[in-house]
Amino acid sequence: MALITVITPCYNQAFFLPDALRSLQEQTFQNWECIVVNDGSTDDTERVALEWSEKDSRIKYFSKQNGGLSSTRNFGLRKASGKYIQFLDADDALHEKKFQSAISLLENDDALDLVITDFVESEEKLENTYSSWCKLSDKKISYESILLEWDSQFSIPIHCALFRSTILQGLGFNEKLKAKEDWLLWLEIFKRNAQCSLIAKPYANYRHHAQAMTRNHDHMYENVYEAYKYVAENEKLGPLIYPFFHKVNAYWMKHLTKHMRDDRYRLRNEIAGSIKKVKKIFRSLVLK
């Protein structure tokens, strides 16, 4: 029976970790291992993870110095031994049928590289769910759509996917970024012409809470700029360069407008500065 390796990074989320692990134990497909990686937490992450690993040998605990989400996921990838890879952050959860539904497709079609399901969103209590802002099963997911439509038309929480391990071989998360690192990985995956199947069932739960990195505007804007800069300078965009910079400019203008009446002048100035820097990068690339 095929093995699924679940990679669960955890930084100061001991409170949420049991929900993630419980959602694994409730899977109808039971042949999985979970690699819990403690990224230098200062809370009870180690105690909680060890309690669960002592009760369930499929849960394997590792600890490392703090290095950020990308380095923690990459650490887990290096430890993985499964035919399939599932990412599951400590504050998220999966529906009990996620593994079974995805495995049945992957095991019956060797050409498939990954299966993506729809998702729901929730606040701190997982049971208080609501519809996601986008329906992935309605999208045509490709390199171009991920490049140009990400965050405006859709985004794919990483735990929506079950990956065949071979499609991730030689890939990893960009450790220089603290946000949008998943977007860059999705680009790399679909640059390989990944074959994907979509399941129109919300089998992943994306949780919002006060500690989430996406709630930190300063953190997000700084890393969004770095991610856009990385793509502009490293991807061979060709004719996509113009629609890409239109997308980038639209993003910054949207958020600049959003903060026009914000008291945080520094944040507005930072966004305005990002717009100027993006235009400078665009001009330099067009003139090459």
Automatic annotation (TrEMBL):
Protein name, entry field: Glycosyltransferase family 2 protein
Sample GO molecular function, one term: hexosyltransferase activity
Domain Glycosyltransferase 2-like: 5-167
Gene3D superfamilies from the UniProt entry: Spore Coat Polysaccharide Biosynthesis Protein SpsA, Chain A
Keyword Ubl conjugation listed: no
UniProt-listed Pfam families: Glycos_transf_2
Domain of life: Bacteria
InterPro entries: Glyco_trans_2-like, Nucleotide-diphossugar_trans
UniProt source species: Flavisolibacter ginsenosidimutans
Keywords on record: Transferase
